[in-house]
Amino acid sequence: MTGPWWREAVTYEVYVRSFTDSDGDGLGDLPGVRSRLPYLAGLGVDAVWVTPFYPSPDSDAGYDVSDHRDVDPRLGTLADVDGLIADAHRLDLRVLVDLVLNHVSSAHPWFVAARAAGPGSAERARFHVRAGRGPEGVQPPTNWPSIFGGPAWTPFGDGEWYLHLFDAEQPDLRHDHPDVAADTLATLRFWLDRGVDGVRFDAAGSLSKDPAYPDLPDGWRPGDPAPFSDREEVHEIYRRWARELASYPGDRLGVAETWGGPELLAPYLRPDELGQAFAMDPLYWPLRAQLWRDGVDALLAATGRHGRLPTWVHGSHDVRRAAERWGPHGARAVLLLMLALPGAVYLYAGDELGLPEVTLADEAIRDPVFRRSGGADRGRDGARIPLPWTAGGAPYGFGPAGSTPWLPQPADWGRYAVDGQRDDRSSTLALTRTALPLRDVWWRGRPAELTWRDAPAECLAFRRGQHGPTCLVNLGDAPVDWRPYGRRLLLASAPAAEEKLPARSTAWLA
């Protein structure tokens, strides 16, 4: 392996609230995560990204933080964090924490003080606060929308409004304010001092807003350039944080949660900024060969300009399950494709089990997206159902017998359980546990340049460099002969009987 540990690492996202509940209160917690570290080491991942465990009123499942330098008592203690890091390191696993620095909870002491202090106060200067428009300021200051639905401004009730790009309980911080700059740096140092190996920066592009607060033009749609996203000023923040990361030993990683195409994420990877930036666009690519080939080439070119590699995201807590987006067979095929490509890969907890998206009853949904959209968007909870570890009855090993998980598990959840898949050679878990060690042997550390080989319609075939194994991806509807691409089948995402690779599957060939 060449370069820092994270250059081609496989990182597993642990969604804490849905991973393992150690005490039976229905919420997954840090002791639960700690108890499953041997499972993650056995899976073959290099690192674990742990989603927020900080004190929070839980308006947005912990992404509304009231104290960035402590632990929610429902989820554990600082001693549990220290123990988790120590245990992970003994198992040769790195640990990434999730820092939510674009905003705080409305219960954060700063915002409680801002609400009480009144218009024009120093307390409100830490937030994006503007006078309302119209008589007595009863209209929002701009036409900016919340990512979660509805307007991005909420009134204080005294003529001033505050900005929240997410929920109203998540007021945005002004990162050009000295108090905010100092406090966020103190938070970063706090967790680095405790030994974390990296930091995922939530809502990475949102930290800087145009100080003129212009209205969005008519016809604006999400994804278009916006005065509140991915501005050049945001990169000075990451340069400052990158210097802090670099001051610690061990190649500490900074990864940006970016949403957009290659040209948007590439600036975060400049040599004086971060090591990784999420490539989220592939999450939504349909299984079309030319689209994937063009998209892969574009990402390699954009990241390569800065000496970096793409960061492939197979799934996350913010999108529908991989088995829903690409179909069960397609999700397995994309997994092997991403593992063969140059770069790092992020796997979402439960996708190694092939978990499906779950449709919840209205009354069970917790995601604020559902409420803010008036029910038009059912939100992200369908991909956050607590994991099944055992095939017996509910809660399927997620928590102690008789406990009730925070989101309801389907009646057939046991069919996907870890204990049932562990010895099933055809299972998605078995495929993942086989693929990750093989990746280290056949793909990791090979040249970043792809050599595309001729392939049948709706198929992809490539090597890394001029020699070595071939990855053959069949995104079509009919089987294809794999023999022209290698003498030996190393691994396939579906049984390749009679030397034919089935539709919507991937093979590694030597």
From TrEMBL:
Pfam families: Alpha-amylase. InterPro entries: GH (IPR017853), GH13_cat_dom (IPR006047), O16G_dom_2 (IPR045857). Residues 13-384 form the Glycosyl hydrolase family 13 catalytic domain. PANTHER family: ALPHA-AMYLASE FAMILY MEMBER, NEUTRAL AND BASIC AMINO ACID TRANSPORT PROTEIN RBAT. Belongs to the glycosyl hydrolase 13 family. This is Glycosyl hydrolase family 13 catalytic domain-containing protein.
